[in-house]
Design brief:
It catalyses: tRNA(Phe) + L-phenylalanine + ATP = L-phenylalanyl-tRNA(Phe) + AMP + diphosphate + H(+). Its cofactor is Mg(2+). Mg(2+) binds at residues 463, 469, 472-473. One of its GO terms (cellular component) is phenylalanine-tRNA ligase complex. The protein is an alpha+beta fold. Helices cover 25% and strands 29% of the residues. The longest helix is centred in the C-terminal third of the chain and has 19 residues, at 781-799. It is built from 19 helices and 42 strands. Helix 3 (179-189) runs antiparallel to helix 10, helix 9 (419-426) crosses helix 11 (467-478) and helix 10 crosses helix 11 (467-478). It folds into six domains: 2-38 and 162-189, Phenylalanyl-tRNA Synthetase, Chain B, domain 1 (2-Layer Sandwich); 44-137, Nucleic acid-binding proteins (OB fold (Dihydrolipoamide Acetyltransferase, E2P), Beta Barrel), CATH 2.40.50; 203-405, Phenylalanyl-tRNA Synthetase, Chain B, domain 3 (3-Layer(bba) Sandwich); 413-481, 2-Layer Sandwich (Phenylalanyl-tRNA Synthetase, Chain B, domain 1), CATH 3.30.56.10; 499-700, BirA Bifunctional Protein, domain 2 (2-Layer Sandwich); 716-803, Ferrodoxin-fold anticodon-binding domain (Alpha-Beta Plaits), CATH 3.30.70.
Length: 804
Amino acid sequence: MLVSYKWLSEYVDLTKVQPSELADKMSRTGIEVEGIEVPKEGLKKIVVGDVKECTPHPNSDHLSICQVDIGEEDLAQIVCGAPNIKAGVKVIVALPGSRITGNVKIKKGKMRGEVSNGMICSLQELGYSDSVVAKAYSEGIFYLPEAAVPGDEVFHYLDMDDAIVDLAITPNRADALSMRGVAYEVGALYQQTPHFECKEVVEQQNEQIENYLSVEVENQTDTPTYTMRLIKDVTIKESPLWLQTRLMNAGIRPINNIVDVTNFVLLEFGQPMHAFDYDKIGSKEILVRRAKEGETLTTLDEEERTLTPENIVVTNGYKPLALAGVMGGLESEITDKTTTVALESALFDAVSIRQTAKIFHLRSESSSRFEKGINPATVKEALDFASAMMVELGGGQVVSGVLAASEYQATNVEVPITLARINDYLGTELNAHEVGDIFVALGFSYTEEKQQFIVSIPPRRWDISIEADIIEEVARIYGYDALPSTLPSGQALAGSLTKEQRLMRESKQVLEGAGLFEAISYVLTTKEKATDFRLKKANTIAVDWPMTEEHAVLRQNLVSGLLDDIAYNQARKNGNVAFYELGRVFYQADATLPIEENHLAFALTGLWQTKDWQTEKQPVDFFLAKGVLEELFKVYGIKQQVILEATDEFAELHPGRTAKIILNGQLVGFIGQVHPEVAKRYDIMETYVAELDLETLFSMRNAGINYQVVSKYPAVKRDIAILVDAAVTNAMLTTVIQANGGNYLQFVELFDVYAGSSLGENKKSMAYSLTFLNSEATLVDEDVTKAMAKVERALVDNYQVEIR
């Protein structure tokens, strides 16, 4: 929320408090300040000008030559291209040598042959966003009030010398989404009681509102309270400048005096309101109900909405007039011809408002407050305040009476707590008087007897209801930095890692030692990305009310998040990326609770080794990724048990460069190149990925690596070269060799592969080195020869190889 320092100063005394000091204190007591902006900073020599003459430029069909009084002896000639420039208006003038937004310097010059001594400015040229400039001035220059003095700096007229404090309001502190709520907070920090302006409604006694309207609420749960007043004979016009500037500084566009009042009260009280043109309601009845399936409503943004029973609507008894708490309808909007205003102030169900805002993508200032909560005690007070203010700014009269349906009585919440409880939690030695002063500063009444407090919480702090909330409030106001620092008491127990935790830490060491960097990706993603690259099929788990569509479903793989990270880096010219992630994925069977599994994944792209004076560049490839996996398997003690099996089952991976990772006959992961079509979708270069199901892998691994004494006897190596069909893989051949090599076979290593036309069509030559070792005696040639013969027969029988 954007808070005006000047506006806040009307409620609490801040004469001795600088904005930066206030921001620091608020941040340290629970409401973070994201920044402070003074709109006039960076601008200079911008003054009020009075346009005395305005004539068309002789050499242009859209420029005008203006003679402007800028408070000097002679008039200044300025060429202006704004379509709404005319004589007799007060304008914003940037003098020669001035600076406007973007640090642009204005110089004296000529435009189409005519001298221009400065520039007549729009609000956008002073740094205002298009979204907050009134539509009447959005395409031209801004008119200052008649009382503006030529030559004066414009900043105090537009409140550009104000400090705008940007508060990051968390959902639990929605009470600070109003100026009064912020004033209570600041008052507590500086031991002050805020003072607010009261407006008395003067009613027209000869007419009763019941003669004009009736209100009814169909469901009191949807609408705990709904009130309405009627103001007749109003004049719709532009709001005074002070009101416009307050709205603009808060990020809201001024519309007209009636609509601006509703937005002002929204900021003042945190109470969303809506004004209907009474003559356009179409009946003398207001009915608040759920929408009927298929009903339509054209909202103020001129979009036709098809409604559902999830939406609460305000109707005239038979058709919708507004989406309750979200946006009004176009048919009953306030226009220049409005003379009678029906003003609504209500409390709506937070869940329904959030659902409606999400369905229609219409999250507004009003809906965000209804979602988080509003002060139920000021619904009627805000209605009276706004009614009186409308009469002040638009004339007219308030018709006698208030229509109220399902009226809600707000009450204080009483929370008991002891002084000992507070001190035990905070480690402090506060006495009853000190704690009582904090309650007074917060505006909480209380009774105290024998160090037992009964604290009465006003409805404006609906976030407080239990002991822990009271303790937090005491800590905040007392000061977190004033709390004593103490060590925990009691016996300390030596901690240790589980086997799984130890293996996961060792995994990180291996991967980082190999040159990969850890990434942490979002757990929430899209449904499409969640179901890519997954090891098992299961139902996705969707968040009921996601913040964005891109973060709506819990992931079922880690690879898609890593690909997003790679895309982010490559878009910023970082093409050589090696990431890994250890995290959880989420599955759900048909009617069971979600299952969380630990997975490990990595992604490699670009160059693994860049070219320099002594090395050639080495691009990432399948075998490099496979080597990283093998280092992990060594740590897990499963290198000899793991089999890589070529596959085309993963649609997201290249069918000729992908393998399943099999352990004891069960799928535990995959490795491969991202399919070119998928890479194109992510906008990334050729990338290799792998993912392991650590839950399954750790449950199937052996107890660990057993220590063996280095043998006193020498090992014997034998080589074998075979000619085999190209379709036969290394894994197939290695499995046969290991199964038939006998008890003394220790290692099998492929050291040469050759394929060429001289070998024949679809043939390849593969050479293996077999290592034999007997740790209890010296091997003799006869034992090794027998083992090699058995291996050769098995290879011939299984794959019809030719021994070379």
